[in-house]
Design a protein that fits this description.
233 residues, Rossmann fold, alpha/beta
Length: 233
Amino acid sequence: MNKAPLIEIRDLKKTYRQGDVDVHALRGVNLTVGDGEFLAIVGHSGSGKSTLFNILGGLTPATSGDIHLGGEDLLAMSDLDRTLLRRGTVGFVFQKYNLLPTLNAHDNIALAEVLAKTSNLDAPWFREVLQTLGLMDRLTHKPRAMSGGEQQRVAIARALVCKPKILLADEPTGNLDTENSIAVLEIMSGLNKKYGQTILMITHNPEAADFADRKVRMKDGRVLEPVEDIHEI
């Protein structure tokens, strides 16, 4: 069954100026992502993957093109509106966990609510996220007392607690060993299946990409799809 589009990207371009040289990071990206889809984006370093994520997350403006997130015209928004969209619509998971070392797991997760300026914590959802990610017995632990896999689960919980429509995961298993990588990917796949969470994941790992519903490849600032054999990238 085809999923209704949640993300629609048309002819997206991004050009950086470095000295006297124009660097074309995105050269006309076209991509549609269904609501509730788990999409893996693969490609070599410099192919434009992270630039695309930064634009989708409202962190970087595009040079030209068209992006609609849930019907909202991202590129027509003001900086303030993009910030509000980022707080309420998009969750980020990075290769580096970006946890505050002085806070325990509970407070690192709850910090997302503070930054989003959410006045009413959804306590049942907060607890469900913790239970789903297997963190109930780790809430008082600070990052230095947790394994890499546990820290990444805390980072995922932090991204989910504000109920984002879209989860952007940039190399989420890049710092993990095989066992923890599989555990994190199974959790993400479970979130996608149980809650219909829309997930876009950047990865260099063919085995990680196999957890997704669909795989596309980026090369030279463009999206090539579909990818039948990711092992050829």
